Please model this.
Amino acid sequence: MQKLIHGIHTFRSTYFQANRLLFEQLSAGQKPEVLFITCADSRVVPDLITNAAPGTLFTVRNAGNVIPPYDPGFVSGEAASAEYAIEVLGVQDVIVCGHTGCGAMHAILHPEQCETLEFMRAWVHHARETRVILDQHYSHLTGDAQVLAAVEENVLVQLENLRTYPFVRERLDRPDFRLHGWVFEIATGEIHTYDPIVEEFVPLATAPAAP
Model:
């Protein structure tokens, strides 16, 4: 806690003072550019990774960057946050970002590791399709390669879950609304993005520019 308290004082005396006008403007309301859905992992810091200023990202975080599929009888914080970002704030770009070494993906691959974690077991059930895909197409992989395959496929599964929401579906044909799948590699700091043309994740620097 002392590190956090010291950090608050440092923030106030340095970054905040240098950007006081920005924060005064933000106090009147927000207009984020991107809905960024990612893992709660402490090593993944969206604003740092993207070098985004305050007010740029509307961020949703949970274990495994999971988006429960649309179910009118089930309300989730992910659904409420996405609805607000898209319907009210007018966000036009949505990123689902996974990362290497994801603990939630380990839980999908090795469910016995979370036998005593009641809520974690229930939560990763929303990513059950990821496990099905792994069993069908990646049974030959082991170790880090298997985890990476799980991370990448889970990003795509969660994008499909996102597409099940009416407020997303009705925007998919609009040229100014875009969905993106990213994977953050912690060891190198590199971002890979899903390229639907080649149907694989490629380094963001080499991906085609968004229209």
Notes: The beta strands are 34-39, 57-62, 93-99, 178-185, 190-195, 200-203. Residues 143-163 form the longest helix (21 residues).
